[in-house]
Write a structure and sequence with these properties.
Strand content: 5-15%
Number of strands: 15
Largest sheet: 5 strands, parallel
Distance between the termini: 33 Å
Structural class: alpha/beta
Length: 582
């Protein structure tokens, strides 16, 4: 569980504090002063690898000039056995620390020891986390938004796992409710048009217009003929929805499997209704006094729940009073429960029945108004939804070709399906591009760029670095130069800026994983990969390996192979392959 960036930062603090205590014991500095100093990484390596503000932060309490304090600290500082070879005073009193070969060698040793698990931590402390993502309605093929949500959710779950969380991936199948009713009506209309002709049976205006509905109706007709021509509505609604789901859900699973996504569970909404769990959940809200009846329907007092939530989060009463808050129907006058009621029950199932410490959902940005309402409802059940439910809202995908937007319309049935996209570009390119930016930013998916085989294509650029190293290692092995163990490398030979920058970047991965977890943003991994590949290519072009003295060749070969390992590690986190040849 190495994090040598943080370890070096902590060592700067310890060395500085030790020097202060040594100076104070000799009467050179006032004793008993608590100094809250910062330790930063300077942008310019000329200012050292780390800079401490200790002298400036303690100047007022010590009644001394910062540079005078800094000078005393430098004179008392013992760097023996530390990561640092020297410390200098700069500017108004910064203490600039310069790393020595010990730190660079330790980075290589730690990565070798952890292998493809490098970057792991116990940050999550084994907490159970469910990541629910895609959860597309099973009424048609998955589209570009689902494609983005898929890689975001899958990669986030992988990153959380690496950070010590016990993660679970889930797809919530909305196989009940109004959209399934509309789905069955659409299949029925196309089925009747097959029997009677399109001009003799009107298609519902708000139905699903895609060609996939026509294909389902044709399949149903081929299986059952005209047996459902005069069937009662209750019969064809049930049987046609069941048939459509039986066809569509395996297709969804196949598309996602092709997209390198496998779930721990596919959870069906119908199970919540059939088991009585939705009714039980609504009953619990009623027992707690959060519901009321009006116009024959049962309502959730969302307004009061949200007021309570927002006040607890620090909003003023005046701010809350200005919000346009509305209550929600849980059970309609006809006795049917709403989607919101089922959603509350599903999340109660996650947090209460199955005991997940945290539920993370990947949703489209158009669902933003639903987030606080659902969290507040869970608060009303005593489940602390405001903290235990995290919703990552995902912006749109803009598909480009020839530099122009490719129009997509779900209502017209011309949405670009995931399986169509994967016929055009590789799974690697799709996954990399969709995870290339934070969920809060739209993604411009350039179809032309995604298939290019040059450095302009980011996934090609990163994969090429991996393949290039594999080729180098194989070529040198044929010449008798094997990759050495890290312990056999003399890190003192790493003297060029390119070598040092590359090793520093290798050490950065644990911090990037921490940031990805903190921000619920796995695109940190993509940006890290681009930076690492760039540093490797610069190193490779500036530092010869073949033909160098044995100790230099050996060290640089080990450095290159360590980069290979870390690139493969990170590509694995985002579900992209690491080819050995390109």
């Amino acid at each position: 569980m190495s994090n040598l960036i943080q370890a070096a930062r902590e060592q700067v603090s310890a060395l500085t504090q030790s020097a202060y205590e040594k100076a104070a014991a000799q009467g050179l500095l006032p004793a008993g002063v608590e100094v809250k100093a910062t330790v930063e990484i300077p942008k310019d390596v000329k200012n050292g690898d780390y800079a401490s503000s200790f002298a400036m932060a303690g100047a007022k309490a010590m009644h001394m000039a910062p540079r005078q304090i800094a000078q005393i600290l430098v004179e008392q500082m013992d760097l023996a056995g530390s990561y640092f070879e020297r410390v200098e005073i700069a500017g108004p009193g910064f203490l600039n620390f310069f790393m020595g070969s010990k730190w660079y060698g330790e980075v290589l040793r730690d990565i070798e020891a952890e292998g493809l698990e490098y970057g792991k931590s116990d940050e999550g402390k084994g907490k159970k986390v469910m990541v629910e993502f895609v959860s597309a309605n099973p009424t048609g093929p998955m589209h570009m938004g689902n494609a983005r949500g898929g890689v975001l959710g899958d990669s986030l779950a992988n990153v959380l796992q690496r950070a010590g969380f016990d993660t679970w991936k889930e797809f919530y199948v909305n196989d009940a409710g109004n959209q399934i009713h509309k789905f069955a009506e659409s299949i029925h209309a196309r089925y009747m048009q097959i029997l009677l002709g399109e001009e003799h049976f009107e298609f519902p205006e708000n139905g699903y217009h895609g060609d996939d509905i026509k294909e389902l109706a044709q399949g149903f007709y081929e299986k059952y003929g005209d047996r459902y021509r005069d069937a009662p509505e209750e019969k064809w609604l049930a049987d046609m929805s069941a048939y459509g789901l039986e066809v569509n859900i395996p297709k969804m699973k196949a598309d996602l499997s092709r997209y390198q996504i496998e779930y721990d569970q596919w959870f069906f909404e119908s199970e919540l209704h059939n088991s009585g769990y939705v009714a039980e959940t609504v009953g619990m809200l009623a027992d707690k006094g959060w519901t009321y009846e009006k116009d024959g329907a049962l309502w959730l007092n969302t307004t009061e729940l949200l007021k309570k939530k927002f006040l607890a989060e620090g909003k003023t009463q005046e701010q809350v009073d200005k919000l346009d808050l509305k209550d929600d129907v849980l059970r309609r006058a006809n006795g049917f429960y709403t989607y919101f009621a089922a959603d509350i029950a599903y999340h109660r199932n996650k947090l209460d029945k199955r005991g997940f410490d945290l539920a993370i959902n990947i949703w489209g940005a158009d669902h933003h108004g639903h987030v606080a309402r659902l969290q507040a409802a869970l608060d009303g059940l005593g489940l602390d939804g405001s903290h235990r439910l995290v919703v990552v809202l995902m912006q749109l995908v803009n598909l480009l070709q020839d530099g122009k937007p490719v129009r997509m319309s779900k209502r017209s049935g011309k949405a670009i399906a995931l399986h169509d996209l994967l016929d055009e570009v590789s799974v690697d390119a799709a996954r990399y591009f969709f995870n290339s930016r934070a969920a809060t930013s739209p993604v411009d998916f350039d179809l032309d760029l995604a298939v290019r085989e040059d450095s302009e294509n980011p996934v090609y650029y990163v994969q090429y670095a991996h393949a290039r190293i594999c080729s180098l290692v194989q070529r040198l092995a044929e010449e008798g130069a094997a990759v050495p163990a890290a312990a056999a490398v003399d890190a003192a030979v790493f003297t060029t800026p390119e070598e040092k920058a590359l090793i520093k970047n290798l050490a950065q991965l644990p911090e990037e994983i921490h940031l990805a977890v903190r921000d619920y943003d796995p695109s940190h991994v993509n940006r890290y990969l681009i930076a690492l590949a760039g540093d490797f290519h610069r190193f490779y072009n500036a530092c010869y390996i073949r033909g160098e003295a044995p100790e230099i060749l050996s060290a640089r070969l080990k450095l290159a192979d360590t980069v290979r390992l870390v690139v493969a590690n990170c590509l694995g986190l985002i579900g992209v392959s690491a080819p050995e040849k390109m």
